[in-house]
Amino acid sequence: MAMTGKERVFAALRHQVPDAVPWVPFAGVHAGKLVGYSAIEVLTDVEKLVEALLAVNRLYMPDGQPVVFDLQIEAEILGCQLLWAQEAPPSVADHPLAQEMVVPTHIPGPDDGRLPIVLEAMRRLKAAVGDTTALYGLVTGPLTLASHLRGSDIFMDMFDHPDYVHALLAYTTRVAQRIATLYREAGVDVIAVVDPLVSQVSARTFKQYLHGPFSQLFRDISELGAFSSFFVCGDATKNIEAMCLTEPDSISVDENINLPAAKTITDRYDITIGGNIPLTTCMLLGNQQDNIKFVVDLLAEVDHNNLIVAPGCDMPYDTPIENTIGAAQATHDPGTYREVVRNYHRATLDIEIDLPDYQHMERPLIEVFTLDSATCAACAYMLDAAQRVAAELGERVEMVEYKITVPENIARMAKLGITNLPSILINGELKYSSIIPSHRELLEAVSAHITEA
Question: Which of 70, 224, 337, 420 could form an SS bridge with 235, CB 3.0 to 4.6 Å?
């Protein structure tokens, strides 16, 4: 007898052998696309949110699915102003602790902010599909939430004010613990702690500041009777082992990570790994065969134990429905769909890109390559670091962002040899890749080119 999707996810997270590799589509605001609602509507209206989530369940045949993918819910409650968009989750527009090094005390309750909407949606989805689908509750991780509150100065604080960073992270960990408790009480099965900025710190910094908070969070989630997932975006290769040492049930990674290589590490610790269908190059801009091909190739390359197939992160709003259905079908029946794409080869981008004459720039050019700074927290803070330096130096520099949500920018990225995002180039030279520089560090790097000009 075939397992239910929920049983399949549970088996994978218990490090048992399911009857098939579980499929967990991270359809956040994309859920609204399925029923004609904007991102704003599904994130502020419980009726529309539940309708959209049920459409995801019906169309994409998930073994597990998130209820909401919005890493600004906690930040909004704690005083951050949000910038809303029609086709993406909101982004943080300001940082209430940017000008003062204080530690807040407020711990969110079930009636704060948009939590009533989220908790009600969880309860309704649990009643509707909770017997057959594992429900994920996504909690903003301690470092990303601290960055929302403090801004990019948090990275300089790690060197200049370590005691303050420890205190602020202790507070954001307590917030995450409270949100996890509320979500579990509302019926979710898996608590995913989503912290994109983990990819932007060194292994040494992780050990110093993050091992304790995450270890405590995953112990608490276990005591709640839920499974845990450590969700990171960006090139967190250097931190995979450190993440394993915090003892989550699973780790989820995006396209910046070589999943087969990472799985050799997670398997040593008997931790399930999830991922990592590329969001833009495959899901958004590819076709159905591209998505089937990626999944069947991934499943052919790795052992199926301790594995969950999923998009690398929150799916873009305009992801074609047929692409996600293709990924779902390939996950559930890889043998058949391997034959479907046996002779298929993805078309290469044939876009002519003219690069600037970097050797003869009148003023330094800062280029920031992002997945999409409107939806990717790590990308947003990398862009913010560049914007702050550009604002300080004024007309002496130029700055541009390239989002790889359009084919031209993917071609530009390939021509420059950029392999990981987010990244900063100065006059065509890659300076920072998946590491957000402090303001001081980036200012000095750019100013050196002004001196040479």
Answer: 420
Q: Which two tokens stand for residue 447?
A: 């100013």
Task: Sketch the domain layout of the chain as residue ranges.
Answer: 5-340, 358-452
Q: Is-contact 76 122, C-beta < 8 A?
A: no
What is the pTM (predicted TM-score) of this model?
0.90
Q: What CATH number should be reported for the domain whose range is 358-452?
A: 3.40.30.10
Distance CA(186)–CA(46), nearest Å, equals 14
User: What distance in Å separates the CA atoms of residue 311 and residue 283, rounded to the nearest whole number?
Assistant: 8
Q: What is the Cα 126 distance to its own chain's centre?
A: 24
Q: What is the largest CA-CA distance in the chain?
A: 71
From CA 433, how far away is CA 98, in angstroms rounded? 25
Task: Please check whether residue 64 is in contact with residue 9, taking contact to mean a CB–CB distance below 8 angstroms.
Answer: yes
pLDDT at residue 37 is higher than 60: yes
Tell me whether domains 5-340 and 358-452 share a fold: no
HEC readout, the chain: CCCCHHHHHHHHHCCCCCCCCCECCCCCCHHHHHHCCCHHHHHHCHHHHHHHHHHHHHHHCCCEEECCCCCCHHHHHCCCCEECCCCCCCEECCCCCCCCCCCCCCCCCCCCCCHHHHHHHHHHHHHHHCCCCEEEEEEECHHHHHHHHHCCHHHHHHHHCHHHHHHHHHHHHHHHHHHHHHHHHCCCCEEEEECHHHHHCCHHHHHHHHHHHHHHHHHHHHHCCCEEEEECCCCCHHHHHHHHCCCCCEEECCCCCCHHHHHHHHHHCCCEEEEEECHHHHHHCCCHHHHHHHHHHHHHHCCCCCEEEEECCCCCCCCCHHHHHHHHHHHHCHHHHHHHCCCCCCCCCCCCCCCCCHHHCCCCEEEEEECCCCCCHHHHHHHHHHHHHHHHHHHHCEEEEEECCCHHHHHHHHHHCCCCCCEEEECCEEEEECCCCCHHHHHHHHHHHHHHC
User: Which positions ≥6 away from 215 have C-beta within 8 Å?
Assistant: 245, 246, 247
Kindly tell me the burial class for residue 303, based on how many C-beta atoms sit within 10 Å of its own C-beta (0-12, 13-18, 19 or more).
exposed
CB 307 within 8 A of CB 8: no
- Percent share of the chain, pLDDT over 70: 99
Mean pLDDT of 290-295: 97
* The predicted structure's pLDDT at residue 451: 61
Q: For residue 196, how far is the Cα from the chain centroid?
A: 5
CATH tag, 5-340: 3.20.20.210
Residue 81 and residue 101: Cα distance in Å, rounded? Answer: 18
